[in-house]
Design brief:
This protein has about 350 residues and is mainly β. It contains no helices and 25 strands.
């Protein structure tokens, strides 16, 4: 980071309110809405009866009917939301998104790039802050509201971590490495440091903590196994998608245990202390488990049952008990649940 950002992720933002001042590209048309007051979890999914490659943002109570918050599944200006990170006031999001059919194949896929877009759900305004050609792979809005950290193509066309103000200004490369991928960052509850996955060429993904440009702390070493999961950067035993506990002392992540499962792989959900001790498995068994999110009521993640193909969101307590299926909207592409602020 440069001198403006100092040695940590803490930022002084003088124009946070400017994030909502962009011209409304859908003027006069209300295509977004903030989550209901009783909603507890946000996630992305295709709408019932819609195209599987045009996912939207939804919100739901831990047990309740989902509410659709955005409208990508439409003609004229289609898009596909992959992931959303929420502002502390929960009315705005940073959305990792495919914006348009750039290659003319009539579909919206990874070949069209992955951008980072600011959405004000209450006002219906939006602005693309990072272009799709940068292929954004992760994003997190600081819990204290003053910074956005994300991963995207950087030095040597490898993934780096970046930090910027919520209005897209002061965008800086935190890692700037040409032979390592640093990806999927999440900021700790104090807004000071970030946890992320680090992948060196031909190695397993491991969990690290970013302290400052000269200090990154390794937390995990990966698990046993070999062989790569097709279409992903992961080798069997890789650790991925970390997030902090609400008290900032423990980290949840997922580990690729084995290949198979129709090409999805079999994943466990695990926790570890920030110093690398007390490694614990909290969800295991055959099946795909997606990126976990740790909130005040436990750990949320999506899973695909290999026997039924059912894709659902579940929440569990930190010790793996109190498993609760969350009622979700039907449709493909259900992924990336996050507890709402």
């Amino acid at each position: 980071m440069n001198a403006r950002h100092g040695a940590s992720l803490v930022l002084v933002v003088t124009c946070l309110g400017c994030a909502g001042e962009y011209e409304n590209p859908f003027e006069g048309v209300n295509l977004t809405r903030p989550p209901p007051s009783d909603a507890e979890i946000g996630f992305v999914s295709a709408a019932a009866g819609g195209s599987a490659d045009r996912r939207d943002i939804f919100a739901a109570a831990e047990s309740g009917t989902p509410t659709r918050l955005t409208t990508c599944n439409r003609e004229g200006r289609p898009c596909d939301v992959l992931e959303a990170s929420w502002s502390p006031d929960r009315s705005r999001v940073m959305a990792r998104r495919r914006n348009e059919d750039t290659n003319g194949d009539t579909r919206i896929t990874s070949a069209d790039g992955e951008s980072l877009a600011f959405l004000d759900l209450a006002r219906g305004t939006e602005a693309v802050l990072v272009a799709g050609a940068r292929r954004v792979t992760g994003v997190d809005w600081s819990p204290i509201g003053n910074a956005i950290v994300y991963s995207a193509l950087g030095a040597g066309d490898r993934e780096d971590m970046f930090v910027m103000d919520p209005n897209g200004q002061n965008n800086n490369n935190l890692t700037d490495t040409a032979n390592v991928d640093e990806r999927r960052p999440r900021i700790d509850p104090t807004g000071t440091v970030a946890v992320y996955e680090r992948i060196e060429t031909g190695t397993k993904g491991r969990i690290f903590i970013y302290l400052n440009p000269n200090a990154q702390l390794q937390v995990t070493a990966g698990g046993p196994g070999e062989g790569g999961l097709t279409g992903t950067p992961y080798v069997t035993g890789s650790d991925a998608d970390p997030d902090y506990s609400p008290d900032g002392r423990t980290i949840v992540f997922r580990r690729l245990i084995s290949l198979g499962n129709g090409g999805l792989g079999n994943w466990d959900i695990m926790t570890v202390r920030g110093d690398g001790t007390t490694l614990t498995t909290v969800a295991t068994g055959p099946g795909y488990r997606g990126a976990p999110d740790w909130g005040p009521r436990g750990i949320a993640f999506n899973e695909i049952d290999p026997a039924t193909g059912l894709n659902r969101i579940v929440t569990i307590a930190a010790d793996g008990t109190r498993r609760t299926p969350v009622t979700v909207a039907p449709g493909a592409g259900l992924q990336f649940p996050r507890w709402l602020p």
